[in-house]
Amino acid sequence: MTDDHGRENPSKELRTGNVAEETCSVANHLQYHHINTLTFTSLPSALETMAGPSRRRRHHVDSSSSESIAAHSPESGVKPAKHHRSRNLTVSRVMRFCLPRPTDRRSRTTNRLPLFGNLRPYAGDNASWLQERLWELEVRRFIQVVNGTEDMLVPVLKLDSDEIIHYSLTRQNSKKLQVLADRIRAALHVCVIDDSLLLERLPDNTRPSKRFSESYWALRQAWGEEDDLPGRRQRSDPDDISYQEYKAKRRGDTAEDQHRNLDDFELEQCYYLVDQVTATLVLLAVRGRDNDYWLVVVLACLAKLSTKIKFLVREFSKNVAICFRNSKDHQDTLGPEHFRDDDAQQPLNDNSPTHTRYRREVEVVSGWLTDCFIRVLRGLGAQNPRSARSGSVDICTIVYPAGIAGTRTLLCQARNGEVSGSPGLIPVAFASNSITIIDKLSSILSSRAHIPPPGDQATDETMSDRSKSASKGSDEPETVLVVELERHNEDVDGEQRFNHVRRRLTIRTLFDFVAIATCLSLCHPEVGIGFQSSLQTISALSAFEEPEDHEYASTKSAAPTRSDVPTEHTPSTKSGTAFYAFVNLWADNAEGGRPTDTLSSLSNSVIAARRHNVLDRQLPPLNHARVGTSATRNPREVIAALNEAQEKRKRLENIIRKWKIHESSIVVECPDFVVRVSLFSAALVLGGLACGFFVGERITGVDPFNLTMFSWIIAGFVILIAKSVRVSDWTWRDFLFRQVTCRTVKEVADVVPGLDEQDILCFLLSSEIRSTLKTRGPFGGVFYFSPTDGGFSIDVKPNLQTLWAAGVIPVMVQTLEGPVLRFLRLVSGYNGHTSVEMSGQCVDCVCKNPPDNAFDVTSPEEGQIDEAVVLFERISWMKILGVYNVTGVSFR
């Protein structure tokens, strides 16, 4: 039975022993996979064990895996890992958040709490008892992961396994993995639709969320929704939708594959994928913020989401039909004014009503976890775009120092080609945690690289056929992982030194690919931004408690000292420490996608090759080798480039720190120049006076003070020339105060000795959002703000290397008018677009028909460099071509 808010009221009848027999038919199809083993435990035995308190829980695991479970189990008595503090995290505490029940019968406040992740529409009357047991199983598994390490993400390799995750990484097996990822993604949409409908029925929520519309129409499209628009296929009767079967709509799938449910073998693989993603999310959540209340909310929401996905994929065609039938009254398209703006809601505090607080916490955290799932599934091949090539994989993440301040900036390329980035402290720190896990996973996988992968049981190819095909050469692409890390560590002597580490690993099995691609997909800046939004929602509550000192270090801009942070914490979790990285997972596909002199993927780009020192504007050699496949760079060269960049940034910071930036000018102190000019003029004046006094009447007919007057005139001309040679207007007041007011880039470069014009532009671009300086033309097209009359003049054209150094990344997209450059602005304080999606439209600074690399720029002259004209226009594109690589091109 349920109340008015969709929440089950538990009944004593559901606690009887007959329930276990009634749910046995359902439970026989649900098998849950422990993340640190490759052994599946049947759910009926687990439910039967929980129903009888005197019985012990059984785990069918091998000897090596059972020791791992015991070591990380909360009940084993073994102390957690050193880098984790003591927690008050128990199964009962998480379950109380999953099933909030009234503690006072006279109070009806908690009766209004909605039950998210409800299985009632799909499991029948026994859903209340069943889902509670399933949630508890998931929570126990998550707590094992919380108390464990990255080793739990790597199961024991069994050579006799016939599971798909142990298959060789081939195009055929990758396609099977993409089908499973598509099915899980569709199940996620069902979860979002059900929870959105539950929220809409609440008294204090009158408008649906945008997530409902997006998930609803995405699921309808996968289902086979047909439109009535002219020129398109005729839409089916909405009443007949419930009787249609689910369509995966994967390119290359047969009609039979699109209309069938998954068999038991494929269901096990779906359960494995869900467990792998959830375990990785748990590790990243605890490393992002090691707080008990935060973990309780995350584990509870993740347990409900994981359970419902596993339950839905079992009979997905029937479950999708149920979902559409329940949401039939809400299928009409709503305009933007009908949707709720989540950011406009009032912030939570300790005085917020219980139902409002619980709803907001679950809604925000569940939304973030859903977005994480979507990102991971796209990395595994779900929702493959029409422009993607078969078997092509190129996922790249870069963390490099941008701007004069050396802000750690995140730059990513997803598998579908989307390019994104962020300079935010928390998104960069979250991605750094994921990169650290990738580094440790690659080390673990490299240790067992000598073990041959098990045979592919899904094919009928014999050993003789395999050896014959091997002799002829296989056309299967080789998938390679390249990890490069540079940490700024403190040695025994107290000196800060860089440490460069590079690993190259060949991905041989589907499991290796899933483990790496999951972590690499979670480096996306949108994941870190969602993590930050979730923390901002609940961090002001007293239950969140005050973070410890070392937890503050993860968002500090300054590098913490050795006494601030325990030595057990890795440097990668601190956004302020100098931790730079290059991670690339790619498959060498011979069908196309080779880099050109004009554009390339992010891993092939010049910025990836010059990421250690983006302030160095020395043009790289043409046709530079691919970073991921090139020979190992000398660590000394890498460290030398990092040290050189660091010294240059310090020198520029010392110069810029003395500037006074006003609304339309930059005041630069120049005491040395003023003193030299004044001393020279004073010497002329004193020399003239001395001449007048010492000459006297020795020269007949000559007044010696005429020489004095002449020396004064010369001194005046010297001062006037000195005041005019560098700036157009130097007032006497500024001259006397030994400073000069510069109103153009060239004037600043002329006043400050040894300062390059492009360095000034780099500083202006990287600090434009937070600066009070207003700019104007003629070459300010790449700047974000519109030109202002009387502003600081940008009279020098910035080149492509300057844009990279400032954090402005030109990305080439394909439009109906030809190739166009969009600028991905990764500048501190910028709240606009942080990604360039595969297709879309925008009104922004763009460059149409950019010049290609048709000239040699080994020693360019001003007249030989082509110009790219930047305009503020609306464009619409249907494909990303790559990162723009024409070095030496200037923009105006």
TrEMBL record:
Residues 49-86, 334-356, 448-478, 549-572 are annotated as: Disordered. Residues 63-76 have a biased composition (Low complexity). Residues 346-355 have a biased composition (Polar residues). Residues 334-343 have a biased composition (Basic and acidic residues). This is Uncharacterized protein.
